[in-house]
Amino acid sequence: MAPLNIDPSYYVRKCIHDDLSAVMNINETCLPENYPLFFYEEILEKYPNAFLVACTRNGGKEIIVGYIMWRLERGVSEFGVKIVKKGHLVSLAVMDRVRRHGVASQLLTHGMAAIQAYGAREFVLEVRISNTPAIKLYKDIFTFEQKKVIAQYYRDSEDAFFMARQANISNL
Ligand SMILES: CC(C)(COP(=O)(O)OP(=O)(O)OC[C@H]1O[C@@H](n2cnc3c(N)ncnc32)[C@H](O)[C@@H]1OP(=O)(O)O)[C@@H](O)C(=O)NCCC(=O)NCCS
Question: How far, in Å, from the CA of 137 to the mean position of ligand 1?
Answer without folding.
Answer: 6
